[in-house]
Amino acid sequence: MLTQRMSVLAQKLSGFVCLRDKSLLLIQVRAYGVDHEIRQHEWREKEANPKRSTLNDNSKKPETTLWFSTEAPKEHDFALTNIKNWYEYQILKLKKKNQKFMPQRYEILGANLATAHFIVHRGGRVRFKDSSFWIDSDKDLPNTYDPYYILEAIDVNGFDLRYEGLSNLCNLTNLQWLSMKNCKNIDDWGLDKISAEFPELEYFDISGCEKVTERGLEALYRMINLKKLIVTNHNKSAAFELTCMMLEDCMPGLICEILEPLEISKE
Questions:
Q1: Domains plus CATH for the chain?
Q2: Which conformational region is residue 108 in: left (phi greater than 0), alpha (psi within -120 to 50 degrees), or beta?
Q3: Selection from 197, 240, 146, 259 nearest residue 33 by Cα
Q4: Which of 205, 260, 196, 194 is closest to 227 using CA atoms?
Q5: Does 235 score more than 50 pLDDT?
Q6: Using one digit for the tens of pLDDT, what is the confidence trace for 244-253?
Q7: What is the pTM (predicted TM-score) of this model?
């Protein structure tokens, strides 16, 4: 199985090793952008609020008929275990809702400041271009669009960032530094989205992300300018280390720092 997975990865990466013109690699990148996230938001809203049949919505239906769901109600079990599971599920739904993409925020602030507000408001910090200062408070951010605020670095160390929240990090064309250290909910699907969104990233720290495996690392070949990658091999997998080595081979200048569980990076 390991040999088969590595051969598949080798086929993916071998096509990029011989290309010296990095502009050709950008053809392979599926950049999402704000427009994509807006379409996804509209689709999710439509799915969450399906149209219900009402009177006069179909001329073929008799107007004296009331249309309602014939599905039998679910049986409720008030055991303590079920109540606990229900409560945890409601908390999870609330967290995901709190991180969902808001097109109105991007229309008012633009991509850079909208992302900055999203990150800082939830305990992260950001740094803008031509500045050496990190901002970790909403009070230090403008509430209107300002083209001079261009995000260059984002730090969400230990932040409860979920896949839904990644939609708020889009269209950041100048982002070079990203730390998602100890983000427990970042997984392989999240890495696939991040790699397609930020092909120009130079520094990427995902150490402490327990759900990241070699399957997610395979998607990072899109980041053609990546110079530093910090990861944690939680499962002590040989395939994980081999994937990092192959990324270094196909991306000149990349250095992968592989940490053991509970080990702290030197940086």
A1: 102-262 (3.80.10.10)
A2: alpha
A3: 197
A4: 205
A5: yes
A6: 999 999 888 9
A7: 0.72
